[in-house]
Amino acid sequence: MHSTRWITGLIAAPLLIFLIVMENSWFFSIFVAVATVVALWEFHRIVTPISETADYRLFSAVGYATGVAMILVAATASLEMMAFTSFAGLIICGIIALPRFKSDPAVSDAITRQMFGILYIAWPLGMVVLLHGGESGRLWVLSVLVMIFAGDTAAYYSGSYLGKHKLCPSVSPKKTIEGALGGLVANLLVGILLKLFFFPDIGWGAMLLMSIVAGGVGQVGDLFESILKRRAGIKDSSGILPGHGGILDRIDALLFAIPVVWIFTLNVI
Fold first, then answer.
1. pLDDT tens readout for residues 135-144
2. How many domains does the chain fold into?
3. What is the H or E stretch that residue 34 is in?
């Protein structure tokens, strides 16, 4: 499992870096749009009851279309259009639900899941596209990826070798306090290196605070997805990435960390 995990990462990393740094940013946006659809599919796979009829998939389809549209308008650096698109998706779901509600009041649950998926997945991934298009955007996207993945790796190995005290056993029995602290240390180290070599104009206090907050909420994002999976009784969101599980398993921490870094760049840079 360890070797498979590393092989998958080593294969995927160069492609991801290439898409981030290449001149034409639309390729990156399209890649994020595809990842959004896959992550939303995995999300609905986790939260949708098995007994739900195929008729409800129309709401999921609206969610996929809304997510893709949000990513594409984010590529034009339009936060306002992202908001409009997400509300348009809600309006469409409302129109679809109105004639069905009398015979099936549970239709409101499908709308709730669809909009929660947009908030949970499409909004943060839209923000990474906005971040990519901003000042030093490519560097910031690479930075948040390195910071979160380094923290995730450090948490895994420090927890495996040093972990003795459970962090949140009811949600994720294998995660430990020692692992969480190891991850935060890695986040801080990455923040220090970023400050020294790439962002010398940003103050030490701001950079270190951003690193620890982004790393901390990233760990919350990891546990949050674990809640969803534990409730559904599954281990991985899918098997798309050998050794890692699904796309959602790989980006769960990023979904919580990206908004922190995006807000930081808006207010500090």
1. 899 999 999 9
2. 1
3. helix 25-47
